[in-house]
């Protein structure tokens, strides 16, 4: 079962309700309707208000004057640490332009499970970093026999 969502609009604004298993996010611009919804849910379910959104499904929420910024800084740092790339230099493009990867080039990696874990983690990072999607898709084609 995936994330369920509910949206309603009023003359004052909008209210959004996102549910994933037992996690709920309620947000919007109609604070009165948000309060009513919270009270209605509390009357039917045991729940507690954890305050402003900080994390949801692994995404970190940072409140800004213009709204909420979703990012995965912690996951990115953990991935870089796992790959031993914390001290690596950054680049503008995640993959060399016009690079063609082939299954038969190179020797098989000694730890293919590490490669699979890194590609899976990169795939999850595409939620907030869509510019790496093409590169992750390309390296993901080599999951069976990474070299």
* Mean pLDDT, all residues: 87
- Low-confidence segments: none
Strand line-up in the sheet with most strands: 1-2-3
> Structural class, from helix and strand content?
alpha+beta
Binned, the helix content reads 25-40%
In sequence order, what are the helices and strands, one letter per element?
EEEHEEEHHH
Beta-strand fraction estimate: 15-25%
- List how many beta strands DSSP finds: 6
Report Rg: 21 Å
The main β sheet shows up as:
3 strands, antiparallel
Tally the helices: 4
Q: What does the model show?
A:
This protein is of the alpha+beta class and 147 residues long. Helices cover 31% and strands 22% of the residues. It is built from four helices and six strands. The chain has helices at residues 31-44, 73-82, 112-125, 133-140; strands at 4-9, 14-20, 23-28, 55-56, 59-64, 67-71. It has a three-stranded antiparallel β-sheet with strand order 1-2-3, covered by helices on one side. The radius of gyration is 21 Å and the shape is elongated. The two termini are 36 Å apart. The relative contact order is 0.10. The model has no long low-confidence stretch (mean pLDDT 87).
